[in-house]
Design goal:
By secondary structure, the protein is an alpha/beta fold. It folds into two domains: 63 residues; 183 residues, 3-Layer(aba) Sandwich (Rossmann fold), CATH 3.40.50. 40% of the residues lie in helices and 21% in strands. The strands form three sheets. A seven-stranded mixed β-sheet has the order 5-4-3-6-9-11-10, sandwiched between helices. A two-stranded antiparallel ribbon has the order 1-2. A two-stranded parallel sheet has the order 7-8.
């Protein structure tokens, strides 16, 4: 079936399903690009280009059944790297890219950096890509997630260390900087999330009954292994809570940063 007919039928199927896909045409073209190996410009200019109909609609049906697009096509661009994405780890979000900019302003060439709760390895690998002289390690409680991070390191030809650890349990070295995007959604909030998110690992989303329990665990233990600074990604309404926890444990120079949408999203502090 040619591109123009695929698009026409896809739009009809999506309308009939009642599924609300905000970036509708964008996602259709993402599937077309994935199957054809051609870019959107080519497909737009060549509407009679042949696409395997069965393959396309098998993928579209996965999307209509709430499978996230990044899992369907199996990859996600993050900063200047491309990450393999599947059900082993949370899909990296665009806002997390902003955290890299913040951290880059404080990294020194020979620093040792630990990315805790690494998932796909996105933060650790981006830091290494943009700071090649920095020594980078990443850790995760999930062996599956850590294996995915290893695959992404190989895919991007980047050399970092990997540690299977429940927070600081197996962290034996000391580091100058800690970066963490831990689970921060409360158990109650989790039940109200979009269906797409139920396809991602619950372990990487839910931070406990209140949502911010992991921050306190990390902050309480960090002084033993972190020498200079810590950075967190946080929920949009957690800035003051995390700041209070940091103050409770006597951290200094605490700063809350907003994301591009104007929400509290990141926190830094000095040991």
């Amino acid at each position: 079936m040619v591109v123009k007919d695929i698009i026409r039928k896809a739009l009809a199927d999506i309308e009939a399903s009642g599924k609300n896909i905000p970036n509708l045409m964008g996602e259709i073209y993402m599937l077309l690009e994935h199957l054809s190996g051609k870019d959107k410009l080519f497909l737009t200019l060549n509407k009679d280009f042949e696409i395997n109909e069965e393959d396309f609609f098998n993928l579209l049906n996965k999307r209509l059944n709430d499978t996230p697009m990044a899992y369907i096509i199996g990859k996600k661009h993050f900063r200047d790297i491309v990450l393999k994405t599947d059900e082993r780890a949370l899909i990296p979000r665009f806002c997390t890219e902003e955290l890299i900019d913040i951290v880059n302003g404080f990294i020194k060439p020979d620093d040792c950096v630990l990315d805790m709760c690494t998932g796909t390895g996105a933060i650790a690998l981006a830091i290494k890509e943009e700071n090649p002289l920095t020594h980078v390690a990443c850790s995760d409680i999930s062996e599956d997630a850590l294996n995915l991070a290893k695959e992404n390191a190989k895919l991007n030809n980047l050399s970092i260390n990997f540690i299977l650890s429940d927070l600081f349990e197996n962290i034996t070295e000391t580091y100058d900087i800690l970066i963490s995007n831990p689970p921060y959604i409360s158990s109650e909030e989790y039940m109200g999330l979009d269906k797409d998110l139920f396809k991602e690992p619950k372990l990487a989303l839910v931070g406990g009954d209140l949502g911010y329990e992991y921050y306190e665990k990390i902050i309480k233990q960090a002084r033993e292994k972190i020498k200079r600074m810590i950075f967190f990604e946080i929920g949009y309404d957690q800035g003051n809570i995390v700041k209070e926890i940091l103050e409770k444990y006597k951290y200094k120079d605490i700063k809350i940063y907003k994301d591009l949408e104007g929400f509290d999203r990141f926190v830094s502090a000095c040991i």
